[in-house]
Structures are given as C-alpha cells and as structure tokens.
Amino acid sequence: MIKLALLPLTLVIFTTACSHHKSSRQPKEYNPTVAEQAEYYRVQEQLIEADLPNCKGCIHGSAHEKTFTAPLMTYEIQPEAVTELGLRNTKFDIPVTWNKQVAGWVKFFTGPRGRQHFINYTQRAGRYAPVLSKIMADNGLPRDLIYLAMAESGFTNHARSWAKAVGPWQFMPYTGKKFGLNIDWYVDERRDPLKATIAAANYLKTLHNLFGSWELATAGYNAGEGKITRATRMYRTNDFWKLTKGRYLKPETKNYVPKIMALAIIGKNLDVFGFNEIQFEKALDYEEIMVKGNADLYDVAEIVDIDFEELKRYNPEITRWQVPPYVESYPLRLPVGTREAWDAHAEKDSVVSDNYKTFATNGKQTLEQIAKKFRIPMDVMTSLNPDLSETRTLEKRTIVYLPFREDHSLRANMYADIYEQPTKRERKKRDRNRVMASAKGGRLIRNPSVFYTVKKGDTLWRVAQRTGVPMSTIIRTNHHIIKRRSILPGDKLAIR
C-alpha cells in the first residue's frame, strides 16, 4: 500500500543545485518532467490528505489561516457579503468579489437546479482536492485554484466537453501537449489527476505572469490568452469586470470567473449554505505494480481477480485495453490487497497483448488507406505491421493487424472517441468555418442581374448544383445573408 514518503525525491523536484559552491560557474537548474513530479505525488497522496490541515466547514484543500503565506496575497470578501450571507470563512488566496454575477451563481448552486451538482462535486473533492491543493501550493500558486478545477469538471477525470477538452482541468489537446502531457492512441494524461494538475499549475503560472491578475488569468484559462490579450487592448483596461460589459468576450467566459468565485464562497462556508451532511470521498488506497509494455489489461485484471473496469478506474489515463507498447515498463495502480496475487503469478512477464483484430486486404489497398478507413493513427498501424509498406499496394488477402481487441466491437465505449458523430454544435461550427473560408476565396459578382429563390430543402451545395455556379461564388456574393444564418426558403440569392 502506498504510504511511504520519498523525501530525497522532494529535494530533487522542488530545489535546484546548491548556489554556495566555490566555483564561479552557475549551477544548472534541474527542471523535472511532469511524470517525475507526478511520481512524487503518487507516493505522497495518502499522506497529503492525512497531514494537510483543513479549513473548518470548507472543502478539503481550501486555503485558510494556516496556509496563507507570502508572497501570495490574501483577499477578503466585502463586508456587505459577510453580513448578507452570514459567512464564517471570509478570506481567500484568489480574488473573490460579491456582485450580481457571483450572487447569481451562488443562487444556482444552492437552489433546486444546481444543488445536487454542487453536492456531487464536493463529495468527489474529498478524494482529489487535497493533493490538487498541495500541487498548487508547491508551485507557488493559490490553493483556492482548486475551485477552478471544480468549475471545469466537478473533479471528474473522464469529463469531456463538446469542444474535446478532457479531464479534471479540461485541457484541449494542443495546450495539454504544450505543458507536458502525453496524448496518443494508448494514453491521455489529461485524465491523470496528478499529471494534469501539474500541467495546469504551469499553465496558470504562465497566465498570471502574462496578465498580473488572477481574474484575467482564469478568464484566459477559459478563453485562451490571445482572446483576453485582445480584449484588454480593445477596451484599454485590465479590469475583468469592465471587460464583461463589452460584447467581445463570449458569455461563457464572462460567467466563468464569477462561477469560480461562487464555488469558492460556498465551498468555504458549507454549513452556512446548508451543506452539513457532505460525505467526502476518501483518497484511493492503492498498491502499485510494474508491468511490461504492451501488457493486456484484461489479463492483468484476471490475474489479480478484479473487474477490467475497476482496473481502469484506478488508471484513468489509459484509454484502451493495453498499456503503451513503446515503453519498457509501466506503473499500474491496483486496489489494496491485490498485489500479492500478481507477485505470486509465475508467468506475469508473458502478459502481452497479441489478440488483435485483423483485416484482409482486397488487393487494391495500402496500409495508409486502411488506417484512414478505420481512423487509426499511422504510427500505430506501422508499429503493429512493421513488415508492410505504408504506401505500396498490398497483395490480395494480406493480413493487417488493427489495434482493437479481437473480441471487441468497434462500437464499444472504449473507441467512442474515434467513431463518435459530431454534435449539432460542432457541425454548425464546421459549416460556419467553411462559409468563412469560401467568402474569402470565392468570386464576387458585383452587379448581379440573375437571382435564385431558395426552395424548401435547398442547401448551398444543392443551389450550386442546380445553377452551375460555384458554391464559393454564391457564398461570397451573398455573404450579407449567409454570414448570419443558414439559407431559408424565400431567400433570393444572386447567382449571375
């Protein structure tokens, strides 16, 4: 069971070489990887929960009198909010303002529509918030940023937004990779609460260094630093609340910062808002084993006598049915009491994935085409089929290995991210992007004399087919209509 502290690793991770050496050469700073830092917190996880002093009446991990330390600032909510709400814990290490927007979110999370959501978030916070808070503090950041994770995902590792943001901190793929998270066919470290929090700490530190304000930094976490930078230049202010009065920022971003503040107010005054009976989940007690690369998780689960889904719950970053084949070994978490069965298994080193689905070619296909057909990354296909050419046509009935388990349906939840259909919102955004691209590249009819009246069931593509006019020309010439909405019956489109 993971209960031991690795103090030397703490020094490796959070200190640099001694600066008092007599040599005039400056010591080289050691920058640990996300994986190295996560290993420290994996070992410390249960100790952190046990040793971290808790704020009375607060979600575990919240900042309070014993954790307010320089150079972080301490912020106190306005006296009128204390009086109106009857707050007991009034200090935070992130700015918290009481205004109409924040009050609206407090009303939501304490009312009939949002109350159960808040209870669910808070129960999960017991498992994750203490170690997330510790990671923030170790990186010189406010502990109350745990409420940003609460706003993002409700402390859910498998949370996934319509925009493909994933994990407890809802990283987009580009940003996750930028801050050191591995995202590929086999793993998605955005789902690992430790690694994702370390990446989030680095990102939030970058944002705060850029804007010098936690309101703008958290807004930038939602909208992107570019969007917030443009907004501050457009309105010539670094005051987040003044930015919200303009039209440039989306409502989602305008609501994001007050939502975090509302969660912090309630989360640090649970009894005041009637959340007296919260049953905090405990941090997972687990044991760890090392398995060889490409190990089949179904076989591992069978050996230690647990369900496959239970094994996956302890290892949320593994997206498929096997550990990555490109590593020599991989640390797997197991429920306490199961490691003994693994250690006693005589042939544990032979637990290797080999029961792949296969595909027989028809004599006209390349490995590249097959990868595209099944939506599989090319590097995964070549690693499974090292003897086959990527682009050369394969002989008829050549057997090609696919990275799906032989007994799996391609409709299984495990592969939902590959074959899921785009949502209505995603399709609308994609179509809008096509319209904008065509508006720039199409020919403009300057003095149109011929018009087409849109009929029921018409699309831009169908109008182009019926009239023989390129769709890009139709879009650019009628951009005053199409930029606002889809075409409707009765619209008159200029075509000549």
CATH class placement of the largest domain:
Mainly Alpha
How does the overall form come out from the CA principal axes? flat
Instruction: Predict the CATH topology of the largest domain.
Output: Lysozyme
Percentage of residues in helical conformation = 40-55%
Poorly predicted tracts of residues: 1-28
Name the average pLDDT. Answer: 88
Query: How many distinct helices?
Result: 22
Query: Over the alpha carbons, how many angstroms does the gyration radius reach?
Result: 27 Å
Strand content: 5-15%
Total strand segments: 8
Quick one: biggest sheet? 2 strands, antiparallel
- Class per helix and strand makeup: mainly alpha
How does CATH name the architecture of the largest domain? Orthogonal Bundle
Rounded to the nearest angstrom, the distance between the terminal CA atoms is 76 Å
Order of helices and strands: HHEHEHHHHHHHHHEHHEHEHHEHHEHHHE
Q: Write down the domain tally.
A: 4
Please give a handful of descriptors for the protein shown.
flat; 496 residues; Lysozyme; 44% helix; Membrane-bound Lytic Murein Transglycosylase D, Chain A; disordered N terminus
Description:
The strands form 4 sheets. A two-stranded antiparallel ribbon has the order 1-2. A two-stranded antiparallel sheet has the order 3-4. It has a two-stranded antiparallel ribbon with strand order 5-6. 32% of the residues are buried. Helix 8 crosses helix 9 (214-223), helix 9 packs across helix 10 and helix 19 (424-441) crosses helix 21. The protein has helices at residues 7-14, 34-51, 79-85, 100-110, 115-138, 146-153, 173-178, 193-211, 214-223, 225-235, 240-243, 251-267, 297-304, 308-314, 339-344, 367-374, 378-384, 416-419, 424-441, 460-467, 471-477, 479-482; strands at residues 75-76, 91-92, 286-292, 329-335, 356-360, 399-405, 451-453, 492-494. It has 4 domains: 7-267, Orthogonal Bundle (Lysozyme); 286-350, no CATH class; 356-419, LysM domain (Membrane-bound Lytic Murein Transglycosylase D, Chain A, Roll), CATH 3.10.350; 424-494, Membrane-bound Lytic Murein Transglycosylase D, Chain A (Roll), CATH 3.10.350. The protein is mainly α. The longest helix has 24 residues, at 115-138.
